[in-house]
Design brief:
About 40% of the residues lie in helices and about 20% in strands. The chain has 15 helices and 22 strands. The strands form 6 sheets. A 7-stranded mixed beta sheet has the order 14-15-16-13-12-18-19, with helices on both faces. InterPro entries: Ald_DH/histidinol_DH, Ald_DH_C, Ald_DH_CS_CYS, Ald_DH_CS_GLU, Ald_DH_N, Aldehyde_DH_dom.
Length: about 475
């Protein structure tokens, strides 16, 4: 059994998590320790003890540790990608790409550790000097989702350590393997005891403890809206710093002047790849009525070429849904869409494959009304809804008609419309002629409205969450 990592040592848990592949339910990946209250207390106490000395650690020590982690991840990219594909269901090329991204993130923040900036200002009062510096927040609890089981922990853990914080990582119970592999690499990176801790286990035990314990100074959470709201409430009650990423219902606008091949590729990639299990997926396809029939016909032709199957099988485009619960949710929304009067023109059915897995044919609905439930609520599966628009202005209105605001895309050859859309789309990230899903690791990530709360993730923007600002005055 793979153990928990607490205070620089491996520990047994209170229970165990058995992980199976969604591509093949007979493929047992491993057993992983699951934390109980005793292990949670050990980890929080260890991170709290280590925080005081680690906040004054040298930046070169942090940089060296993060660089070492990134190097090993990169060297083991195929091995770790295979594990990720087995346990989460991404196709092997996607999984290897995610591992490579995680390596790049650690490498990036190894250098950011050396670039923690401050300001020296002249005071308005003669004889005084003013220094503005950044300090670590302290103990950071990280609650990660299942859909990017190594990249999202990487983009939270790496900046936390780079800026001098101690970390407690709680991965999703569905994907303990990738987090354990990451922890095993981190355990050999030279970090002092207590700086990094791994607590696999249920949210009601581990997550709630991290959100409510006053020794945990900040929480970075990625997951569902409901859980995010509970984390926010708990952190607000004790005035802890909090950062939330909670999903989206992202639009892709296709204007009449768009290159049809570019638009269809962006829609297919953004809506269905990674089995649609991305918060940045474009689940609302808003298409100018002038090219509406041509776009739908091209989408059907392209979807007919998509291969769904075992994540490790060569030539597969889309792997399985992550588990039975998520599959049931996808099928429930497909039924809702049919009942609402949306027209299913492709997919939406279970697929039989040589192995017993959660295989779902990507579903494309057309003639959707923007008020329909399946158009407004996040499904988190390979389901897309096509909505007709009268013109650009109508398309923009439809794009912004959502409680979410993570990402928004537009396909057009008009510089005027692209420029206007970038300014007026109510989203934290805007894509022009590229899929809504797919972002760089060195630039800010985050949304508006119900998608995100708190400081941005990734890139140099991460310093805002993982540090606090101190202003000092000196009489010279």
């Amino acid at each position: 059994m793979k153990q928990l990592f607490i205070n620089g040592a491996w520990h047994d848990g209170a229970n165990a998590i058995t992980s199976y592949s969604p591509s093949d339910r007979s493929d047992m990946i491993d057993e992983y320790a699951s934390a109980g209250t005793e292990q949670v207390e050990l980890a929080i106490a260890a991170a709290h003890r280590a925080a005081e000395s680690w906040r004054y650690s040298g930046t070169q020590q942090r940089a060296d540790a993060l660089d070492k982690i990134g190097t090993e991840i990169n060297e083991r990219k195929v091995e770790l990608g295979t594990l990720l594909a087995r346990e989460e269901g991404k196709t092997l090329p996607e999984a290897i790409g995610e591992v490579g991204r995680a390596a790049a993130i650690f490498k990036f923040f190894s250098q950011e550790a050396l670039r923690i900036r401050g300001d020296k200002l002249a005071s308005v009062r003669p004889g005084l000097e003013v220094d503005v510096t950044r300090e670590p927040v302290g103990v950071v609890g990280i609650i990660a989702p299942w859909n990017f089981p190594i990249a999202i922990p990487a983009w939270k853990v790496a900046p936390a350590i780079a800026y001098g914080n101690t970390v407690i990582l709680k991965p999703a119970e569905l994907v303990p393997g990738s987090a354990w592999a990451l922890a095993e690499i981190i355990s050999r990176s030279g970090l002092p005891e207590g700086v990094f801790n791994l607590l696999s286990g249920p949210g009601r035990i581990v997550g709630e403890a991290l959100a409510n314990d006053r020794r945990v100074d900040a929480i970075s959470f990625t997951g569902s809206v409901g859980t995010g709201q509970r984390v926010l409430t708990a952190c607000a009650a004790r005035r802890a710093k909090v950062q939330l990423e909670m999903g989206g219902k992202n639009p892709l606008v296709v204007l009449a002047d768009a290159d049809l091949d570019v638009a269809v590729n962006a829609a297919i990639q953004g809506s269905f790849y990674s089995t649609g299990q991305r918060c940045t997926a474009s689940s609302r396809l808003i298409v100018d009525e002038k090219i509406y029939p041509a776009f739908i016909a091209a989408m059907k032709d392209k979807l007919a070429q998509i291969k769904v199957g075992h994540a490790l099988e060569a030539g597969i485009d889309i792997g399985p849904v992550v588990d039975q619960s998520q599959l049931d949710q996808d099928l429930r929304y497909i039924a809702i869409a049919k009942d609402e009067g949306a027209k299913l023109i492709f997919g939406g059915d279970r697929l039989a494959r040589p192995t017993e897995g959660y295989f779902l044919n990507p579903a494309l609905f057309v003639d959707c009304d923007p008020a329909m439930q399946h158009v407004r609520e996040e499904i988190f599966g390979p389901v897309a809804s096509v909505i007709p628009a009268k013109n650009y202005e109508h398309a923009l209105q439809l794009a912004n008609d959502t409680e979410f605001g993570l990402t928004a895309g537009i396909c057009t050859t008009s510089l005027k419309h692209a420029t206007h859309f970038k300014r007026h789309a109510r989203a934290g990230m805007v894509m022009v002629n590229v899929p809504t899903a797919g972002v760089d690791y060195h630039v800010p990530f985050g949304g508006t409205k119900g998608s995100s709360y708190g400081a941005r993730e990734q890139g140099s923007a991460a310093v805002e969450f993982y540090t606090t600002v101190k202003t000092s005055y000196t009489f010279a």
